[in-house]
Design goal:
about 350 residues, mainly alpha
Length: about 350
């Protein structure tokens, strides 16, 4: 039978059958995540997915299309696209389930009992337990986390910018040694950094008390490499021409730095601050290593200790607040970053022109 005379309903029926075989996928993912009913749901789901692949291949054969379109180099990368969507689903589905059960109208974190916001504020759905707002230790952990993130951004970002400019302008072996030290701290595992800082604060720098001060100092030392790398990448694209042009107009080196170079570095500085803030919010290893009191516990520490005992959906609510707080900070920062970068797309000589008008 010719391809044009083949019945179109056959291919359509095969495709419908293939999509129907994919229906058990969500149940399979839930069963795999919760570890319940694995033998009953997981194996049939995998078998159905494998059968659906052969069904889709048969549908393409009925339609007269080649199974692999190797002759078309501009085809859509469906395999890579499928792997990407599978990875996103594998990453997002467990987080979405945790967020969903923060609104559960009951103590269970695996059985849906209705919608409620009681685990955030107000009365908890379970009368013998407290919501997030009714537990001072959880609200204190949120305040401690945000405070550490803000302190780290305000200290690590300026230090990193100054360090990046210094390394970019400084030549010779000392500069290469400083650059190597910065990169070494960036690639060193955080656990090793945390243990080293703990031993340093406990034996050498005893005037730094274990707690908020030690956490802030350690986070600044750990996070300073992000602004250095981002700002140095921006400096390599800018070059020295704009500073030299400003000094040709009569500017001192400090004026060229303050009025020409820094405005050109604003997008990189802002982006590095966003990355530092988001990374500090969910830091666990370092802040736990140098914390010896309950007053310095952060959100990640509370979630870790809570899930080792008898957790309630209040911990899910706190994790949801941390998640959306990070998303909000990154989203607002991205919008501001795009606006700053868009203003500089018109031409980088605007900073020099403004400086020339001032003198």
């Amino acid at each position: 039978m010719d391809v044009a005379t083949r019945p179109p309903g056959a291919a359509l029926g095969l495709r419908i059958l293939g999509y129907a075989l994919l229906i058990p996928l969500p149940a399979t993912a839930v069963a795999l995540f919760f570890g319940t009913g694995t033998g009953v749901i997981l194996l049939p789901g995998i078998i159905a997915c494998v059968i659906s692949i052969f069904v889709f291949r048969a549908a393409r054969k009925v339609e007269g299309k080649p199974l692999y379109r190797l002759s078309d180099p501009w085809r859509l990368p469906r395999v890579l696209e499928s792997i990407t969507w599978a990875y996103l689903g594998w990453s997002i589905i467990p987080v979405s389930i945790a967020v969903l059960f923060s609104f559960n109208n009951g103590l269970s974190r695996s059985v849906w009992q209705g919608f409620s916001t009681g685990w955030y504020c107000g009365g908890a759905p379970a009368g013998t337990h407290f919501s997030l707002c009714q537990r001072p230790e959880l609200t204190a952990a949120i305040i401690q986390t945000v405070m550490l993130a803000v302190i780290t951004v305000l200290i690590a970002t300026p230090l990193g910018v100054a360090f990046a400019i210094g390394i970019d302008r400084w030549k010779g072996r000392p500069a290469r040694a400083a650059n190597f030290g910065m990169l070494l701290s960036f690639v060193t595992p955080e656990l090793i950094v945390a243990v080293a800082l703990f031993l340093t604060f406990a034996n050498l720098l005893r005037f730094i008390e274990m707690g908020t001060m030690a956490q802030a100092v350690g986070l600044v030392a750990l996070q300073m490499s992000y602004p250095v790398i981002i700002v140095r990448a921006r400096l390599s694209t800018i070059g020295k021409e704009y500073e030299e042009a400003a000094m040709d107009l009569g500017a001192r080196p400090s004026q060229a730095l303050r009025k020409v170079l820094l405005p050109l570095l604003y997008p990189a500085i802002f982006a590095s601050g966003i990355i530092v803030f988001a990374d500090v919010i969910d830091d666990f290893v370092l802040v736990r290593a140098v914390c010896q009191r309950a007053a310095c516990e952060t959100i990640s520490m509370k979630i870790y200790s809570g899930y080792r005992s008898s957790p309630t959906p209040a911990l899910n609510a706190m994790a949801t607040i941390m998640l959306f707080g990070t998303f909000l900070a990154v989203g607002v920062g991205s919008v501001i970053y795009k606006r700053i970068a868009r203003k500089q797309e018109g031409g980088k000589v605007d900073a020099i022109s403004d400086f020339a008008m001032q003198i």
